[in-house]
Amino acid sequence: MIETTATLETPHAAKYIAQLCKHFAHKVDITHSEGHGECRFVCGTAIMDADDTSLLIRVSAADEAQSAETQDVVERHLVRFAFREELQPLQWQTVANRLDSGTVTSEG
């Protein structure tokens, strides 16, 4: 599983989440509440959270190609909805998989 994140500094984050979720609801399974949205595409899942100053987008996908496709779909639509802000390309960061450093044991 590949996980990536990107952050957009904007006071309109909750509005963009609502627009994205409403738009994608016609095509994919979504969940939306105030300041939070999830879009489950065939290629991956985008989870979006808003606060007063930023929009955090987390993408989970099975592999790098599907992750890139999910990022592209979300970013292209976000750029369209946020056209007044003249957005720069999002800077996607890969989330490192963190394994618990404890010892795993089995009972038997």
UniProtKB/TrEMBL annotation:
Gene3D superfamilies: Alpha-D-phosphohexomutase, C-terminal domain
InterPro entries named in the record: UCP028291
Pfam families documented for this protein: DUF2218
Designated name of the protein: DUF2218 domain-containing protein
Organism encoding this protein: Neorhizobium huautlense
